[in-house]
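Worked example

This section walks through a single chain of length 428. The input is the sequence exactly as stored; nothing has been trimmed or padded.
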Amino acid sequence: MHERGNTEKYKMRSKTRYTTVVACVFAVAAGMAFFGCGGGDGDEGDSGDGDSTNPVPTHVVGIAAIGAEESVSGIDGAHPDIAMDSQGKLHIALDKNRGTELFLYHKGASGWAGGLFASAQPGGTYNASRMYIPILATDAAGRAFLSCTLGNKGGGLYLGQGLFYFEDITTSPVSPTWFQTTTDTAGTGVAAVDPYEPGKVILMTVDGLWHKFNSFGNEVSEGQLNVGESGEKIRFKIAPRSGRAGVWHMAMCGIKGLDGHTSGLDGQYQNSVRQAAGRPAVSWAGRGTYPEMAGDYIHPGISIDLVNPEVCYIAAAFDAGISVNIWDGSRMLYDATALPVVDANGTVGIERMGPAWAPVAGGGSFLAWASGGRIKMKLFHSDGTSGPTLDICDGHRAAMCTDGSLYIHLAYNKAGQVYYRRLTLEAQ
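Given that input, the structure is written out below as tokens.
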């Protein structure tokens, strides 16, 4: 399959049927980005970003067109993340892999712009020797939270998780309003928002320890989603529910028996509904079958489902290849010791990053990974059925978000630079 511009068909298909939506539409990104009625301000040309008047497909079955490649940055972004704000603007966060710098880029009428926005230095404002793995979360009021991992192996005081807050990411995307840190041991911090609690963010950290901050930078509560001893290898999402708190989903890869972590657990999964009912975490990937998960480098990728908030899709790049399990709302579909392998040659393209997911309207989620130097994608449904493997473009280190409507937004690295493409969904 070859790359195609955004005016070309990805494949022959039957006539697409859509349902017009008059209510507000959530856009659920990799970092849980949302937008409401009114959408974009129309200055994106034909990109379609943020046009919430777009009809929502009733059932996504594939990708109809692959948009033209757009250059985002000339730096070798290591762990890209992409999110859409309340006005339909796209934002991409990057790092330099165990480095000291974080970058933000934003798509406007004239293309992508941005650059360095935070630099760590022992004794400086961001008192650390590492600042990496940025994760974006935006809400319906235009606020944005960006989490990152902090380290002090080369000096500095900060060791744990960092959280930046942008009061209005659409109009003031350069300077954060405030910065906070947590110290739940070394490891990844993952920001996520729930529309049920506007103006607040959950910063999930190692072993399921979490902190809730408001838009003033005050920590208002904390707790634990008990997924087991995970170390840094976590990912976390919140699936929104109408009129009540969303469902929290978390997956981890079992940690090696070092630094006080002695359990040697499987890769485990937990959600807030199960925990509230007193049920323990469940295994999604067996430690004995996939012992490579014990190192620091293999992180899971997870996704919610836009139809059933209790569904979670999970994947990791094990030695066997890109491997998947699905929590269907009541059980794991596959034996944790015999996961289906999507691509035996599949990889992510860098350490400490899981395969990317993008949930779509009508249910299901697209998985993205790299194989043979090219981005591949595949649509999975909560019953385990899946579509064909699609060949998208040259690249690796994929990150994705959806706008809840017609498009998936893809960021990726190729030849030491970061690029973007818009993918048009095919629906029936």
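What to look for: The chain has one domain: 18-427.
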